[in-house]
Target: Bifunctional DNA primase/polymerase
Amino acid sequence: MLAVTGHRRQKSGRNRMAAAAREYADLGWPSFPGAHAGGDRACSCDRIGCPDPGAHPVSAAWAHQASVDPEVIEAWWVKRPAANIILPTGRVFDVFDVPAAAGAIALDRIEREDVPVGPVASFGGERHLFFVATRGAPMDEDEWWSCHLDTLPEDVAETPGMRWHCRDSYVVAPPSVLPAGREVGWLRPPVRDTLPDPLRLLEVLADACEDA
Model:
């Protein structure tokens, strides 16, 4: 009986993640399986002392393999039932990643001043993720950069706690589960609307980071 119950829970988790990844694909958002937290260690990967448990892709090939193909997505989560969901940035959208306190201040100002805003997610209650239109790969490379996860874009380096995920970066998407039972969840779920201009929202978020 316990084995059946465990199997059902595993299938439910797989179906939940796979269904969410398919919904992202329907929006045109590629996804890729991520590591997961739980069990007898903080992260499912083999790295000792993983710095981002449950919050990174399962393979270094994620940027090339991320897909919107429903059959590919289903096969991934059949193979890895507990895998979290990774969304590459710099393709359909970029993401501003700020401390939760700053995110709450920004959302309050956004509501009061009717500032255009797109999807917003909570990363385990610690960070807020603001999804904005991507600038992609402009002709003038001086206008943009590759955002590696251990660096900050020059233009926002002086803003405490802010990161701008664009090309060569990714975010962990709802309903992914983090260590200690924390989750990634939508505060404002995605819809089929045009994503907001990143530079307008950057102003609001930069002020919020300074005030937090």
Remarks:
- The chain has five helices and eight strands.
